[in-house]
């Protein structure tokens, strides 16, 4: 996720005690970087951390680390930036003994490239064929994947088994500092970079602050809260947006006026916290699971696919079975103005959700034909069950609550996008563990995912200085290639991306939390001991 920092995994104590000796019970030998799956006495170890068995030699660091604590070292002698192949699952355990959850970085990398496609790729409103379909898939779904991975990272920062005591307070402080940094950085980029692309970082800062009180919960309660939020919050947002004045709010609630103010971050912006929190909380629930277990991955993959079918299929059925739903949305598509297109480079009144002002649209398609939906289902309200090309909600009709297009902020949209994000994450985890050759081929994407904050931010100077909005597939491939080459080369010499390094430095003050209490407790203990000795002597 874009909010990743770094945790020094090497300093982390192992999960469970090591056996007394270099050999496991029953003979044989442990690989130097083999995980200890379960602590003695049952249960699942709190983290996927490396154990150095007696006699094993600590190996040099390999792939770039993120703050997600999924990082483990690569094999000895492997050049920086490479990852060793994980052996098959241990017989009888059903666990994949992964060293690092490289699939998480792969998912982050895909999310970054999806954002690139949504920002500078061809506009699916005017692009036909396979290219238009792939571009539409990136809209909204890549940012939802980012949000889910944000929750994943938050749990990994605070501990897969929640940290307590001083370590817990420091982890909370780190999350708060990261959230504030992202909030300030995102606001500054929105104010100073004149780009048509909506910056998501400030929203992520708000997400972190709002979900932080939940960091001690286990997977079950987190999943229930995410599901309840998906059911209730979109309806609440619909009512709030209808109640807000059309010309916006003034004063502190609308500040800063030329960026994302409080009301925008919570309710009216392109990624409103009220309806994006379920993604983050779902990511927290996923991070609580034992993703090294094959059975868990299978169940999670089925869950993701089921949610996607439920969301998109439910929307398609609702639009076709609820009387007047499609006709109402089609009437809105043919003339009503819509909101700014979130994060796409298409401003309000530029073609989505209203008739083009000229006889010919920017894509060379007759505007009348486009408005009437003759371009095909992808350009009419009939596509609202999966695509943003029908327009964006302006909350003037309850029929909008039946769509599942990625930026519609509806229950069905959240359910479907969460399912897609989970399925992508599980697919990435399984792919890198099962196919070593694929992992080697995907190394540049994994490198981008390991420094996703840097990769995300670096697109904006290009968009700003070159004045790029929606462009051609060649421009998109240029952005992807530049990010992949930079991340691959950087990761061969440095453990963290440049912005990840700076973010890690910014969170250093969190280590001071609780630092003064320990000496004070020691002094109190010594004072109590001295008082006890004095009292004993006086009795004598």
UniProtKB/TrEMBL annotation:
Region described as Disordered: spans on this chain: 1-47, 60-96, 340-367, 513-540
Domain of life of the source: Bacteria
Bilayer-spanning residue ranges: 140-159, 171-191, 197-215, 222-240, 260-286, 298-319, 411-432, 444-462, 468-490
Domain Heparan-alpha-glucosaminide N-acetyltransferase catalytic: 100-293
N-terminal signal peptide: none
Domain DUF418: 408-507
Name the UniProt record assigns to this protein: DUF418 domain-containing protein
Natural source organism: Streptomyces vastus
């Amino acid at each position: 996720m874009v909010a990743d920092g770094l945790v020094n995994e090497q300093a982390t104590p192992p999960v469970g005690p090591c056996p007394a000796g270099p050999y496991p019970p029953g003979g044989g030998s442990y690989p130097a970087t083999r995980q200890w799956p379960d602590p003695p006495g049952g249960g699942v170890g709190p983290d996927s951390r490396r154990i150095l068995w007696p006699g094993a030699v600590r190996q040099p660091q390999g792939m770039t680390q993120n703050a997600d604590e999924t990082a483990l070292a690569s094999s000895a002698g492997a050049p920086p930036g490479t990852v060793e192949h994980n052996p098959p699952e241990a017989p009888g355990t059903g666990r994949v003994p992964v060293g690092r959850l490289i699939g998480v970085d792969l998912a982050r990398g895909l999310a970054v490239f999806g954002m690139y496609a949504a920002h500078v790729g061809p506009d699916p409103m005017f692009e036909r064929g396979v290219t238009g379909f792939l571009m539409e898939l990136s809209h909204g779904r890549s940012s939802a994947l980012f949000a889910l991975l944000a929750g994943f990272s938050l749990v990994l920062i605070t501990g897969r088994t929640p940290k307590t005591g001083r370590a817990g307070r420091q982890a909370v402080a780190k999350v708060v500092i990261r959230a504030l940094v992202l909030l300030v950085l995102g606001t500054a980029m929105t104010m100073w970079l004149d780009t048509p692309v909506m910056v998501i970082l400030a929203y992520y800062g708000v997400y972190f602050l709002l979900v932080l009180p939940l960091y001690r919960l286990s997977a079950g309660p987190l999943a229930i809260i995410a599901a309840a939020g998906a059911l209730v919050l979109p309806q609440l947002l619909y009512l709030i947006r209808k109640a807000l004045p059309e010309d916006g709010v003034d004063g502190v609630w609308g500040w800063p006026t030329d960026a994302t103010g409080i009301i925008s971050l919570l309710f009216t912006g392109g990624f409103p916290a009220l309806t994006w929190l379920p993604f983050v909380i779902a990511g927290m629930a996923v991070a609580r699971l034992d993703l090294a277990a094959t059975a868990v991955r299978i169940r999670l993959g089925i869950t993701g696919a089921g949610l996607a079918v439920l969301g998109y299929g439910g929307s398609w059925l609702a639009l076709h079975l609820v009387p007047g739903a499609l006709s109402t949305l089609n009437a809105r598509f043919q003339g009503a103005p819509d909101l700014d297109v979130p994060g796409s480079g298409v401003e309000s009144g530029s073609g989505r959700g209203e008739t083009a002002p000229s006889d010919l649209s920017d894509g060379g398609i007759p505007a009348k034909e486009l408005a009437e939906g003759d371009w095909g289902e992808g350009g009419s309200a009939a596509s609202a069950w999966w695509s943003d090309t029908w327009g964006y909600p302006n909350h003037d009709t309850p029929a909008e609550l039946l769509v599942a297009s990625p930026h519609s902020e509806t229950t069905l949209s959240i359910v479907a996008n969460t399912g897609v994000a989970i399925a992508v994450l599980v697919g990435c985890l399984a792919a890198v563990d099962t196919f070593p050759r694929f992992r080697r081929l995907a190394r540049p994407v994994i490198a981008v995912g390991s420094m996703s904050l840097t990769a995300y931010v670096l697109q904006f100077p290009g968009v700003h200085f070159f004045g790029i909005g929606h462009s051609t597939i060649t421009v998109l491939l240029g952005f992807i290639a530049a990010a992949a080459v930079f991340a691959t080369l950087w990761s061969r010499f440095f453990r963290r991306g440049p912005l990840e390094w700076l973010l890690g430095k910014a969170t250093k003050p969190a280590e001071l939390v609780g630092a003064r209490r320990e000496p004070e407790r020691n002094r109190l203990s010594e004072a109590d001991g001295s008082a006890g000795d004095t009292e004993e002597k006086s009795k004598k």
